[in-house]
Amino acid sequence: MFTGWLKLKRAPALLALVSFLAVAEQTVEVSIEKYVFTPQEVTIRVGDSVKWINREKRTSHSVLFPQEGGRESERMFPDESWQRQFTQPGRYPYTCGPHPEMKGLVVVSE
Ligand SMILES: [Cu+2]
Fold first, then answer.
1. CATH level 3 topology of 26-109
2. What is the whole-number distance in angstroms between the Cα of residue 99 and the centre of ligand 1?
């Protein structure tokens, strides 16, 4: 019974830690306009996400990772977005599926 009470007393601290970790995960935005990813390069930490937003008037784009077997987002139409969380450190170069000349890079640090 005494141990049970101790566990109960620690619960709020544990909850606070969990919510702190959840808040610590960031989402960085990359906008797509005039066939350019801006910023072209972003550096984030493991667990963070990148959100791409299509700010074109009428062109659709996607985000394609050639190093991962051509893993590609859904096609984003104007004002649509797509986001991905990165759980492994590394360099993730990407292009746009329909416009391979468009290039960007996500660097994920530990
Ligand atoms: Cu494109």
1. Immunoglobulin-like (2.60.40)
2. 4
